[in-house]
């Protein structure tokens, strides 16, 4: 059975770059790796509704924290069997965002911390009720909210428009604090904070 490894962090933190570098390092060590990213835009209807909500196209639902969180959760619920199958076929299944992102952003929107009731609610619905696989390790790619915002703005010029959460600098700062709290309390699994990735060393820890 493979290991489920999750990369978490703010919008613009560089999660995709970390995923690519870690995949290359793991492959060089002989591990088989498959990667996924959430939300699954263009694949799952719930993810597409999330996209609409983030861009103000779902009326009041986009502003409703629990409503948006359910859409995120349903996207992962729809992928749960695929993840379990992939774990049976690969040494590492690498996810760009997972359950903790729902907990972190929702708690930040409600001005709660990592010990608040929203974080407990996310665990109850995604892990206990929907049966989403539990990560073996979560990697928190930590950058300042200011750096993440600059990167997200730069990406907007070349890739896509930022959504309403990405342009809310106060929300991003609160979300960073929640992520730190989740890592500190080892929410769902062990966490490792990454600031300046050494891909070879990180790959060795991932497969241990």
TrEMBL record:
Gene Ontology terms describing biological process: dTDP biosynthetic process; dTTP biosynthetic process; dUDP biosynthetic process
Thymidylate kinase-like domain boundaries: 7-184
GO CC annotation terms, alphabetical: cytosol
Keyword annotations of the record: ATP-binding, Kinase, Nucleotide-binding, Transferase
Alphabetized InterPro entries for the sequence: P-loop_NTPase, Thymidylate_kin-like_dom
SUPFAM superfamilies: P-loop containing nucleoside triphosphate hydrolases
Highest taxon, organism lineage: Bacteria
GO terms, molecular function: ATP binding; dTMP kinase activity
Signal peptide, first to last residue: none
Similarity-based family: Belongs to the thymidylate kinase family.
PANTHER family: THYMIDYLATE KINASE (PTHR10344), UMP-CMP KINASE 2, MITOCHONDRIAL (PTHR10344:SF4)
Protein name per its UniProtKB record: Thymidylate kinase
Origin organism lineage: Bacteria, Bacillati, Actinomycetota, Actinomycetes, Pseudonocardiales
């Amino acid at each position: 059975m493979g290991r489920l490894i999750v990369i978490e962090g703010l919008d613009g933190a560089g999660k995709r770059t970390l995923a690519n570098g870690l995949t290359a390092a793991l492959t060089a060590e002989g591990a088989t790796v498959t990667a996924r990213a959430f939300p699954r835009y263009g694949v799952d209807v719930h993810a597409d509704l999330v996209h609409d909500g983030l861009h103000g196209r779902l009326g009041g639902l986009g502003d409703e924290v629990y409503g948006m969180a359910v859409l995120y959760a349903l996207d992962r619920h729809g992928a749960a069997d695929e993840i379990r199958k992939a774990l049976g076929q690969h040494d590492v299944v690498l996810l760009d965002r997972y359950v903790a992102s729902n907990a972190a952003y929702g708690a930040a929107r409600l001005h709660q911390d990592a010990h608040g009731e929203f974080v407990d609610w996310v665990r109850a619905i995604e892990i206990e009720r929907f049966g989403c696989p539990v990560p073996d390790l979560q990697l928190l790619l930590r950058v300042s909210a200011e750096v993440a915002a600059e990167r997200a703005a730069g990406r907007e010029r070349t890739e896509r428009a930022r959504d309403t959460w990405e342009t809310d600098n106060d929300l991003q700062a609160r979300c960073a604090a929640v992520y730190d709290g989740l890592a500190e309390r080892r929410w769902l699994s062990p966490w490792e904070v990454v600031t300046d990735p050494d891909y070879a060393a990180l790959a060795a820890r991932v497969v241990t």
